[in-house]
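Example 9 (inverse folding). The structure is encoded as follows.
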């Protein structure tokens, strides 16, 4: 059997709702890796958020983070990390624009290794939701370090990999699109809604900005070249809008049973099980570990 390149999203795909890898999934993936297949995470998370899962599976493969804005190989000290950061000048024009700030509840900044916000939420439910969606651990903010997660331009000026804009309730996103486009036409803009998952309001809109080359499909192509794997031997799993391009590109793609509306229709197939029932691992076991 040819070696397979397996690309999987994490949240909503390979991880269960408790943000864990189950023992069953761990067992299956370790068996596939032992067969020589390449199993790679491809996620919106930063590398520090991914390493515990990478180590749990004992992986030695590429790790795609920040929706393709960062490519790592934590197992190889000779691998030079690849980054596609947002231009600093562009970032600070967006950050300092009062019209843009007036339209937002929160401004989330993801750098190479950390995530920052423009302000700390006061409500527990909002902290919990931002932790769930953007992996911001507000528990690390102690009284003596209340500003630990606040972005300060004076001492953090480089390596902005993605910008997440959480619009105030009722704001027309087209207005924000216009303001962003008046600053730059060279960023990818993803538009999604929290939509019934609870934040300050149902359906609150989020815009996520990335470097033009920073997407999961481009990172998948890089990994194919890196491992010399053809499309016919590339398997892809995802559940969200940022997975759509790579799900659409290959016939060996599976939208998760629990996928959102953007992703559910573009995968070549849909997993029989959702992310809480080892959907990725069980699909791979059926394909690559026949009884």
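The amino acid assigned to each position is listed next.
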């Amino acid at each position: 059997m040819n070696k397979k390149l397996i690309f999987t999203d994490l949240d909503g795909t390979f991880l269960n709702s408790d943000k864990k890898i189950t023992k069953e999934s761990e067992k299956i993936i370790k068996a596939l890796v032992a067969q020589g297949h390449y199993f790679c995470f491809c996620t919106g998370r930063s590398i520090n958020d991914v390493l515990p899962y990478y180590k749990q599976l004992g992986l030695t493969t590429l790790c795609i983070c920040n929706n393709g804005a960062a490519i790592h190989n934590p197992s190889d000290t000779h691998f030079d990390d690849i980054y596609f950061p947002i231009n600093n000048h562009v970032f600070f024009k967006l950050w300092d624009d009062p019209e843009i700030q007036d339209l937002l509840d929160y401004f989330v900044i993801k750098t190479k290794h950390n995530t920052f916000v423009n302000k700390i939420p006061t409500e527990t439910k909002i902290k919990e939701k931002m932790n769930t969606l953007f992996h911001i651990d507000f528990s690390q903010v102690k009284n003596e370090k209340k500003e630990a997660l606040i972005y300060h331009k004076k001492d953090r000026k480089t390596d902005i990999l993605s910008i997440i804009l959480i619009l105030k309730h009722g704001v027309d996103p087209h207005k924000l699109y216009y303001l962003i486009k008046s600053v730059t036409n060279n960023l990818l803009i993803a538009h999604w809604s929290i939509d019934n998952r609870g934040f300050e309001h149902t359906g609150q809109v989020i815009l996520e900005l990335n470097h033009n080359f920073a997407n999961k499909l481009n990172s998948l192509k890089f990994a194919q070249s890196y491992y010399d794997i053809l499309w016919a031997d590339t398997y892809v799993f995802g559940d969200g809008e940022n997975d759509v391009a790579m799900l659409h590109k290959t016939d060996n793609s599976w939208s998760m049973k629990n996928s959102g509306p953007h992703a559910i229709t573009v995968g070549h197939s849909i997993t029989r099980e959702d992310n809480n029932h080892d959907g990725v691992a069980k699909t791979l076991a059926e394909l690559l570990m026949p009884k």
